[in-house]
Design goal:
It contains 10 helices and 26 strands. By secondary structure, it is α/β, with parallel strands linked by helices. Bound molecules: flavin-adenine dinucleotide and nicotinamide-adenine-dinucleotide. The site of flavin-adenine dinucleotide has 36 residues, from helix 1, helix 7 and strand 22.
Amino acid sequence: MPANKAVPANKGATKAFVIVGAGLAGAKAAEALRDLGFDGTISLIGDEGHLPYERPPLSKDYLAGKASRDSVFVHDQDWYQRQEIDLRLGSPAATIDRAARQVRLDDGGRLPYDKLLIATGSSPRQLPGASGVHYLRTIDDSDRLKEVLATRSHLAVIGGGWIGLEVAAAARQAGLEVTVLETLDLPLLRVLGREMAQVFADVHRSNGVSLRLGVRIEEVLSGGSTAKPQATGVRLADGTRIDADAILAGIGAVPRTGLASDAGLDVSDGIVTTAALRTSDPDIFAAGDVASAFHPLLGEHVRVEHWANALKQPAVAAAAMIGQEASYEDLPYFYTDQYDLGMEYVGHVSGGGYDQVVVRGDLEARQFIAFWLKEGRVKAGMNVNVWDVTDSVKALIRSGHPVDAAALADPGTALDDLAAG
Ligand SMILES: Cc1cc2nc3c(=O)[nH]c(=O)nc-3n(C[C@H](O)[C@H](O)[C@H](O)COP(=O)(O)OP(=O)(O)OC[C@H]3O[C@@H](n4cnc5c(N)ncnc54)[C@H](O)[C@@H]3O)c2cc1C
Ligand SMILES: NC(=O)c1ccc[n+]([C@@H]2O[C@H](COP(=O)([O-])OP(=O)(O)OC[C@H]3O[C@@H](n4cnc5c(N)ncnc54)[C@H](O)[C@@H]3O)[C@@H](O)[C@H]2O)c1
């Protein structure tokens, strides 16, 4: 057991905790349990063959060849040994037997649990009927895409969401011709709304991306062999044909809820949890992309498919697993880097959840903070090429105070003063 823990949280009992899903959330949960002094058995079960790793670099520096493979791992192999984590890689969990309190593995093995955490993440939504298309979720996918960037000259990207735009930027920077095909009128429209989605459309167009908006893919054309099909282009509903050397589809992610729903847990989009990340079974918890957790400040269940959530939720789940009072109340946060645009977004605006966007700074120069307001209150903020303001934006959202739009737009007014009311 870790040597520096004076008072084990489960003193006097040897308990078995199982974590299914060895991604960021799974690894962070194992770490948090040890940090909290849990000295029972921790089994961390992953279906991928790699140590738990972080995905953001897979569409950015790792894809561009600027970050090494070692830099993406959450911990090195020794760490799991030192912490006495029973790490089982390449070992999919097949079912959860709640009556017997066991996880059954694909290889037939059974793992009893006292508490179970499901951190199975999400997987790319598939384009129906398309073969030879690339997707990007795993480090192996990123390696394959890296090869594409090194050897091909025209990449077509289906989907102008986070994956599509980040890969488009990496591909342009690698010198490829890039076409992005998006169903909606603007990229990132659902998450950012029209005003700020336009900023991303402009960034990509000014970097030479051919952005085809409001299009419908009728057919993905493919060649190559049956064993190794290769997408060669697309035909749009209006009959236009776009030829490409490779196609990446980034059309959304689907939470991996199968284990939970098969086990009869409440699932609605994600695995439904309380603010303590407890599912409808008091001994089973969920965290990361797969969890639809009640958020006390937002007053609704939210499922966040972003890194910071997978990084921080596990500490709350771990505390709840060892019987402590815990509640996850961080505001959703995410970031992106595309060309020379770096941004951070904090807050939550569900569809139609704002009636005003206020900009502080220089929109043209792409150095500004945008705020989404509803009835005069700030619901979310995005800083673009402006740094160290996230805490102030969070405070403004949390305050719930109505703010004066002119003061909010004025860089001379401190955000903290507005938050103080
Ligand atoms: C390419 C890419 C770039 C991204 N960039 C950003 C970014 O810049 N900023 C940001 O905020 N977010 C980003 N994200 C999102 C962020 O990476 C995810 O929110 C985060 O990975 C979620 O972590 P997780 O541990 O919940 O799930 P995952 O990372 O998906 O890990 C879940 C793990 O569980 C495994 N698993 C699933 N089912 C089973 C089973 N039955 N048995 C065993 N194992 C199983 C999966 O294979 C996977 O290894 C990016 C995502 C991708 C794909
Ligand atoms: N910076 C970040 O935070 C970041 C970066 C990369 C990935 N991610 C995460 O990875 C996951 C997957 O990302 P994603 O970009 O695939 O999903 P997304 O939901 O961000 O974007 C999907 C886009 O594809 C479009 N689309 C859907 N079907 C289409 C079709 N048939 N033809 C054309 N366009 C279509 C949608 O309108 C949307 O714009 C998400 O969870 C995302 O949050 C996050």
